[in-house]
Amino acid sequence: MTACDNPLLTITDFVDYAAVRPEHVTPAVTALAEDVEKTLLQVLDASRPATWENVVEPLNESLGRLTRAWGVVGHLQSVCDTPELRDAYNRELPRVSELLLRISLDTRLYERYKALRASDEFSTLSPVRQRILERDLRDFRLSGADLPDDKRARVQEIGERLSLLSQKFSENLLDATNAFTLDIEREEDLDGVPEDVKALYRATAEAAGKTGWRVTLQFPSYLPFMQFAKNRSLREKLYHAFSVRASELDGGQWDNGPLMKEILALRDEEAKLLGFANYAESSLAVKMASTPKEVTDFLRDLACHAKPFAVKDMDALREHAKTLGLEKMESWDQAYVSESLRKNRYSYSSDVVKRYFTESTVFAGLFHLAETLYGIRVEEREGSTWHPDVKFFALTEGGKDIAYLYADLHARAGKRSGAWMDSDRARRMTKNGIELPIAYLVCNFATGVDGREATLTHADVTTLFHEFGHALHHMLTAQTEEAVSGINGVEWDAVELPSQFMENVAWDERVVTSLPKHVEPGENLPQELYAKMLAAKNFEAGMQTVRQIEFALFDMLLHSEFDAKKDDIADLLARVSDEVAVSFPPSYNRFANSFSHIFAGGYAAGYYSYKWAEVLSADAFGAFEQTGVLNADTGRRFREEILSRGSSRDAMDNFVAFRGRKPTVDALLRQNGMIEEVKACRP
User: Fold this and answer.
1) I need a labelling partner for 83 at 20 to 30 A (CA). Which of 262, 653, 661, 677 fits?
2) How many CA atoms lie within 13 A of 287 on its CB side?
3) Given 3.40.50.1820, 3.30.360.10, 3.30.200.20, 1.20.1050.40, which CATH number is that of 3-146?
4) d(CA 673, CA 518)
5) Bridge partners for 378 per DSSP
């Protein structure tokens, strides 16, 4: 195989995803890693002055080629995993991890960056480049580049091991999720399940060569069954399977328990080597929040506001459960009772709403919204993709392309669960001109069956809006330095601001009523139904809030107070639940074993950022409420002060520039119908 035959080595503008094969991975990594090593030697040449052009630019260019190709491999492994691709990825992961960690710990390179900082050239650099250099020096220190040789070597060992453990955690969860199926032969066991969901279950069974209906643990399959199925024993069976995924109770072959302990122990050891008291402190060194106590105080204050409402929510559920013949509501009943109460209280079901939100009309409405607020257009284009379901779009402004987007919306075997946005490429200036940003938008919605178009619940709609908010943050950047472009370098507890802002937009009347068309007659969403949806918007808001606080507090305490050598993860989660929760799962529940955000994602000691950024987004949305959500002038200011800035200045400075002040929690509490408790939680 020549380089010209390898699509990972011939990336110029767009990636030829359809052409990428597992056998391309090793040759590409080998060639690109060798180029990085060669470039590193040139950068370290002491006979050449330490300038931006001699040090920063060439290394970034070479590393960029490697990380983009490797990012493509990682992306494909997330959205269309095969045994061959997984093997290729895992074979090269240690090599890539070792190289990147070694560079971050290279004392010689650190000295070259320090020399550039101390040179006369530094004062002539643009403010953005000065900011990048200062941040690079900080990152060298946080990586351990200024440690003694023995400690630095151990930090590298830990980093390499952690990358392998995180990958294994993801693989275990994916395999455990895919391994379980609930095959149903009697249609009466599906009583209560909507017809379109039953059609999905039948199609799943047929695809596996089975008769009847098949329910899986993939969320578009799992959740509707838990919400609508009257068969309590089958709900319990499905709940148990979902709750013990990737644990010792799940057959043991995919048990994430030992991995979690090792991950936590290694993170703590690494943090202490770097001079921090714990991993949480090291994680917060690059975030808006300054200390673990600041985070836990924030979470506990929010819990104080939310818990009285959560208690009311749970009391209402238990009372309604009795009307359904459930004297004791169990965890496997909760989604079913909740959906029944929603329908009883507001005279509508999420299934009824779903019939109005067809995928095509939601996309059209979403793109029209972007045009209204930000003056851009979104056009579907032809392009090489990794699956026939994937759509490719171009964002244009003034008739010129400004960014590109791949949208992969449907759940399928071999695709990681959840929803996320990721970057293929950031906007930057090159010798050949501006390179335009490219984003991935990935969800796991149910597909259409029997030739019908896919429909979305309103929860799906808000998820789509959320991820599109991330994508806009990345694509509407005005920056030309890759390190500060789009989402690059944005503080982790601020990166959710644009996404959660879009969740708020997804509830605005003009937006909601303009999106849907009924799947059959093509009618718009009736005003009466929207009024019911709006009335139900804060349904169980208290419970939902304390649930997120529970996850966030568990995460922060796990990385600040937990001793992996002697403490028990389940015990810590139980203590956190006792403090803030109102819903208590059975003892066999192994939630932590599937908590990929903190064990395999970037949210370790950072899950609080969802709630932290929710405060920012609610307050930012308040500006739109004052002028009208579809106000183009407010949209322009939001784009200019927040979306376009990337990390070229601090996130708080971005917020203040847009809002004219620092954020307060009041807007979030008001949006969630919890404002009456504000004063009670303040000293």
Assistant:
1) 262
2) 27
3) 1.20.1050.40
4) 30
5) 395
The reported pLDDT for the residue numbered 661 is 93
Task: Give the sign of the dihedral formed by CA 125, CA 131, CA 137, CA 140.
Answer: negative
* Exposure on the CB side of residue 523, measured as CA atoms within 13 A: 7
Q: How many CA atoms lie within 13 A of 662 on its CB side?
A: 4
* Helical spans, DSSP H, in 44-56: none
Beta-ladder partners of 397? 400
Report CA 666 to chain centroid distance, whole Å. 25
Task: Supply the residues annotated as catalytic.
Answer: 467
* Count of beta carbons in the 10 Å neighbourhood of residue 682: 9
Q: How far apart are CA 444 and CA 200, in angstroms?
A: 14
Q: How confident is the model at residue 353 (pLDDT cuts 50, 70, 90)?
A: confident
Predicted confidence band of residue 683 (pLDDT cuts 50, 70, 90): very low
Give burial (CB, 10 Å; 0-12/13-18/19+) of 107.
middle
Domain range 359-535, CATH class:
mainly alpha
Q: Which residue has the tokens 């449907």?
A: 410
Q: Give the gyration radius of the chain's Cα atoms.
A: 25
- CA atoms lying within 13 Å on the CB side of residue 296: 17
Residue 160 has pLDDT above 60, yes or no: yes
Burial class (CB in 10 A: 0-12, 13-18, 19+), 1: exposed
> Side chain identity at 61, as an amino acid letter?
E
Separation between Cα atoms, residue 325 and residue 328, nearest integer Å? 9
Query: Nearest Cα to 324, choosing from 235, 237, 241?
Result: 235
Residue with tokens 């969630």: 672
Q: What is the mean pLDDT of residues 440-454?
A: 89
Are 257-348+540-607 and 359-535 equal in CATH topology? Answer: yes
Q: Quote helix, strand, coil % in the chain, to nearest 5.
A: 60, 10, 30
DSSP string, 561-621: T--TTT--HHHHHHHHHHHH-S----TT--GGGG-HHHHTSS-TTTTTHHHHHHHHHHHHH
Q: CA-CA distance, 487 to 470, in Å (whole number)? A: 8
The token pair that represents 559 in the structure block: 């990385």
3-class DSSP state for residue 438? strand
Domain ranges of the chain: 3-146, 180-231, 257-348+540-607, 359-535
Q: What is the pLDDT of residues 584-640, one digit of tens each?
A: 999 999 999 999 999 998 899 999 999 999 999 999 999 999 999 999 999 999 999
**Alpha carbon distance, N-terminus to C-terminus of the chain:** 69
Which of 1.10.1370.10, 3.10.20.90, 3.30.70.940, 1.20.58.340 is the CATH number of 257-348+540-607?
Answer: 1.10.1370.10
Cα(646)–Cα(478) distance, rounded to whole angstroms?
Answer: 8
Rounded to the nearest 10°, the torsion over CA 8, 12, 13, 15 is -10
Long-range contacts formed by 504-508: CB under 8 A, 24+ apart? 504/617, 504/618, 504/621, 504/671, 505/369, 505/465, 505/621, 505/624, 505/629, 506/458, 506/461, 506/462, 506/465, 507/462, 507/534, 507/537, 508/629, 508/630
Q: Where on the phi/psi map is residue 512: left (φ > 0), alpha (ψ -120 to 50), or beta?
A: alpha
